[in-house]
Amino acid sequence: MRHIAQREDIRDLILDGVDILLARFGFRKMTMEDLARQVGIGKGTIYLHFSTKEELTLAHIDRIAQRLLVRLEKIAQSQAPPGEKLREMLITRVLFRFDSVAHYSLSLNDLLSSIRKNLLARREVHFQNEARVLRKVLQDGIRQGLLRSRNATVAARVLIWSTNSLLPFNLAAAELGRRREIEHRIGQIADQLLQGLRPIERTPPERVHQASGIKCRNRGGK
Fold first, then answer.
1. pLDDT digit string, tens, across residues 181-207
2. Which end of the chain is more exposed for a tag (fewer CB within 10 A), N or C?
3. Could you tell me the CA-to-CA distances from 218 to 57, 204, 206, 207, 208 in Å, in that order?
């Protein structure tokens, strides 16, 4: 136990244990004793890092969100066109969460109903962080003339809100459907959202003039 307790990644080991026990027992039945046994450390070591079971669980949720944010930022920094980045980011924010809780038999809202108030507050912070990354990509696309929006901040929020329906919050991952189906659905949603952000293609003046000339000739020939 001493060897494990002294490891630099002890915090992650503890949160890994929380993930396993949430799937096995749920929040209410999970105990600090269970967690200590799962990780192979004393309860005192857990309390050095986390003061309560609620703090432990919220830290586990925060870690999922932080790891997702790293993925999104990596996509945002890639060389792909802004539209492609946004599509991949929207798909990733859904599938990453889906994969992270696929082993839970209950939805997150049901599993963590005892700490719902604080859970929702944390979730809102997570969404704001994700929206900021999306906004940066939107702003780049607008500057390049590849995307259009009067307000990139609002547009980013709309992208978040519009894809939240497929997150495993109200439904368990198994209830949402197969991963491939989820990916297909979120892809369709992303395509529809991005269609509204792309600049409207305008017909060049010379083509409009040519088209008008053809119509006039057709009318004259009748």
1. 999 999 999 999 999 999 876 555 555
2. C
3. 73, 22, 18, 17, 15
**The pair of three-digit structure tokens given for residue 74, joined into one six-digit string:** 């990596």
Q: Shortest CA distance to 6 belongs to which of 31, 42, 35? A: 42
Exposed, middle or buried by CB within 10 Å (0-12, 13-18, 19+), for 69? middle
Q: Write the CB contacts of 108 (distance below 8 Å, at least 6 apart in sequence).
A: 61, 101, 119, 168, 169
Backbone angles phi, psi at 16, to 5 degrees: -60, -40
Q: Are 12 and 44 in contact (CB under 8 A)?
A: no
What structural domains does the chain harbor? 1-51 (1.10.10.60), 52-195 (1.10.357.10)
